[in-house]
């Protein structure tokens, strides 16, 4: 039995999957037979199979997803695996050198149910946000290990907040390993590890964490997450519109906008309904979802005026239905604040000028950007410009990430301090 099962669900994006697989095959410090790579391909052609065959490596196991259904790829890949620990990798993720060795050392010392680490972002030259193009995004890390309570993590996920460890952990499947025993507990209860027929895989952690007893947090990055122009999350609506399938029916969320954040909420709320005992005492933060996550994505989304009017009206009704008077007032106040800007924004969307105006604004910011700057979000992500390094691909970035972060931030991503445990 291998120590690691690396699971890569994909829609056949051969050029990305090849790099993702390569990053795992090149890992040093772990035995060759400690790694198996399961690729679940939901495409209808064999291009990816031919690409993977060229590796001539028996550790790569290629499977076609039944009925070419991408929504079951994550669960299907798991059921083909054998490893003691399971790591779900997006096809645009790239493992940093030595990452599996770091995980392996923690497993040998502590045998936790879950290990979660940090990650960095690569914003390529075709990313939708012009001011982030050609940048390395770094979430602050301190090189320490933390004992984390899996149920506290669940509370933070459902509250849209972060664990209070002093390190800004941002949970990501590509940097989180689950012991097989945890996965099997979930399968025995539900029959799956990811909700079937959902448009995103965000239910994975919501399903697995309730069945974990111990968790170790590693505050160093182990993977480069591709924020590429071709990434699903960057082009969610475009990909949705091109995919020939019926409209998604939201059953748990109080709103029905076909937006990423709403699919995430639908996943969380569905898991909560399916696992009432495991989620006893854990509440979904509907105020934060309506007033920030969903509202802001709706405001910036490029939907037609007719659909926008319907969704804004529905959002207001959902806010008015909140049982807590204070929360209701705060959500409505935020809705009204952004609604006052709509008469200026919606015409740009209707004329097809909205994306152009955003691009122009972002391009001006890019011209006056610094080599390293802070993004004002909850995890205080830092952007490092890659212009002086002449890096334009994720593979080269992964190989030079340690050098760049050490030079710009004075932090060494290869050093892990376990003394604080």
Fold and architecture overview:
The protein is of the alpha/beta class and 421 residues long. It has 15 helices and twelve strands. It has helices at 14-25, 47-53, 73-79, 99-110, 150-159, 180-190, 203-208, 236-242, 260-274, 286-300, 305-320, 325-339, 342-350, 354-367, 394-409; strands at 4-10, 35-41, 60-64, 85-88, 93-95, 114-123, 135-138, 145-148, 176-179, 215-227, 372-374, 382-385. Strands 1, 2, 3, 4, 5, 6, 7, 8, 9, 10, 11 and 12 form a twelve-stranded mixed beta sheet that branches. Helix 2 (47-53) links the parallel strand 2 and strand 3. Helix 1 (14-25) packs parallel to helix 2 (47-53), helix 9 (260-274) packs antiparallel against helix 10 (286-300) and helix 11 runs antiparallel to helix 12 (325-339). The protein starts with a strand and ends in a 12-residue tail after the last helix.
Give keywords.
single chain; 421 residues; alpha/beta; twelve-stranded mixed β-sheet; globular
What average pLDDT do the residues reach? Answer: 88
Q: What is the string of helix and strand elements?
A: EHEHEHEEHEEEHEHHEHHHHHHHEEH
Label the structural class.
alpha/beta
C-alpha end-to-end distance: 29 Å
* Unreliable spans: 234-243
Helix share bin = 40-55%
Strand-residue proportion: 15-25%
User: What global shape is seen?
Assistant: globular
Total helix count? Answer: 15
**Largest sheet, if any?**
12 strands, mixed
What is the β-strand count?
A: 12
């Amino acid at each position: 039995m291998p120590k690691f099962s690396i699971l890569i669900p994909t829609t056949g994006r051969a050029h990305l999957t090849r790099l993702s697989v390569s990053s795992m095959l090149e890992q040093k410090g772990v035995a060759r037979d400690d790694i198996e790579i399961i690729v679940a391909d939901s495409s209808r052609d064999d291009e990816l199979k031919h690409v993977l065959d060229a590796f001539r490596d028996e550790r790569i196991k290629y499977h076609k997803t039944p009925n070419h259904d991408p929504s079951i790829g994550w669960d299907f890949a798991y059921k083909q695996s054998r490893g003691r620990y399971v790591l779900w990798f997006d096809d645009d993720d790239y493992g940093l050198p030595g990452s599996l060795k770091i995980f392996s050392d923690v497993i040998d010392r502590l045998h936790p149910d879950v290990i979660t680490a940090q990650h960095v972002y690569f914003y390529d030259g075709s990313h939708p946000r012009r001011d982030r193009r050609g940048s390395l995004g770094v979430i602050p890390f301190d090189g320490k290990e933390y004992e984390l309570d899996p149920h506290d993590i669940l509370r933070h996920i459902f509250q849209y907040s972060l664990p209070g460890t002093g390190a800004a952990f941002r949970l990501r499947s590509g940097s989180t390993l689950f012991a097989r025993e945890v996965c099997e507990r979930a399968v025995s209860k539900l029959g799956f590890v990811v909700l079937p027929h959902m448009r995103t895989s965000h239910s994975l952690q919501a399903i697995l964490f309730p069945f974990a007893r111990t968790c170790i947090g590693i505050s160093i990055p182990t993977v480069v997450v591709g924020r590429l122009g071709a990434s699903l999350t960057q082009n969610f609506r475009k990909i949705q519109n091109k995919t020939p399938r019926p409209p998604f029916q939201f059953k748990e969320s109080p709103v029905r906008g076909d937006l990423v954040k709403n699919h995430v909420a639908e996943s969380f709320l569905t898991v909560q309904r399916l696992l009432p005992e495991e989620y006893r005492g854990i509440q979904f933060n509907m105020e934060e979802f309506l007033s920030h996550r969903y509202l802001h994505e709706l405001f910036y989304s490029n939907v037609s005026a007719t659909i926008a009017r319907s969704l804004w009206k529905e959002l207001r009704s959902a806010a008015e239905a909140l049982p807590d008077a204070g929360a209701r007032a705060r959500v409505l106040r935020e809705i009204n604040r952004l609604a006052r800007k709509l008469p200026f924004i919606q015409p740009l969307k209707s004329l097809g000028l909205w994306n152009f105006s955003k691009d122009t604004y972002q391009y001006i910011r890019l011209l006056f950007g610094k080599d390293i700057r802070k993004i004002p979000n909850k995890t205080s992500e830092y952007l490092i410009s890659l212009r002086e390094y002449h890096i334009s691909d994720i593979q080269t970035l992964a190989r030079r990430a340690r050098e760049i972060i050490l030079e710009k931030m004075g932090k060494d991503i290869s050093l892990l301090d376990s003394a604080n445990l």
